[in-house]
Amino acid sequence: MLKVDFVGQPSSMDARRTAEWAFTTGDTKGRPFAVVDKKNAHIYVFNGAGRLVGSAASLLGLAKGDGSAPGVAQKVSTGIPLAERTTPAGRFDSEPGHNIHGEAIVWVDYGAAVAIHRLRPAPASQRRPERLVSANPDDRRISLGCIVVEPAFYDTVIAPTLGSQRGVVYVLPEEGGALATTTLTASAAQPS
After folding, report:
1. Every domain of the chain and the residues it spans
2. CA nearest neighbour of 109 among 68, 65, 161
3. 93 phi and psi, to 5 degrees?
4. 3 burial via Cβ count (<10 Å: 0-12, 13-18, 19+)
5. When comparing pLDDT for 145 and 169, which is higher?
6. I want to staple 139 with a disulfide (CB 3.0 to 4.6 A). Which of 45, 46, 63, 134 is the partner?
């Protein structure tokens, strides 16, 4: 029987159930995948064989919520209102790409301008490096909606997996637990 291998890494039951469902049902189609546990502000990245390649704390959208505001991607350059800075939940077909500055990123939801990327310089008042290492997941809520990781984690884990080919990213919802399989099945047919 196929089984996801967390290689002894602790995880929430919701993250574990989602990863196991995604892999054992074949939803990942043999591609690398990630599970983003928003409640714990943590990302788990797996290779196509279902083995954990790495996990790390991540910065997520400042506002709690599981959807994206209409037209949020068009507000990036002018300023996204605080209440619209969410990391949307769901199943997303990811794709390696670049942002407008040429930086390598992994698109999670291109239409909502949500990506996985390295920690970048930001105003000192945001204390992003300190927030990223905080043990309190609530401290890690600061991004515009993107999933932000340490540069070393991006380079050694994200870049060789999701950054080198298309994959799947499962973002767990704020409310409730693991993504419902009916939601995953329905969203699997939808382009991201």
Report:
1. 13-188
2. 68
3. -80, 115
4. exposed
5. 169
6. 134
CA distance linking residue 22 with residue 151, whole number of Å: 27
* Stretch 122-140: mean pLDDT: 90
Domain 13-188 CATH superfamily: L,D-transpeptidase catalytic domain-like (2.40.440.10)
- As a whole number of angstroms, the distance between CA 65 and CA 148 comes to 17
Prediction pTM value = 0.87
Please give the mean pLDDT across all residues of the chain: 86
pLDDT 10s digits, 31-46: 999 999 999 999 999 9
Sheet holding 104-109, edge to edge: 52-57, 42-46, 33-37, 167-171, 90-98, 104-109, 114-118, 147-149
Phi and psi, residue 76, nearest 5°: -55, -45
Closest-CA residue to 107 (of 92, 94, 120): 94
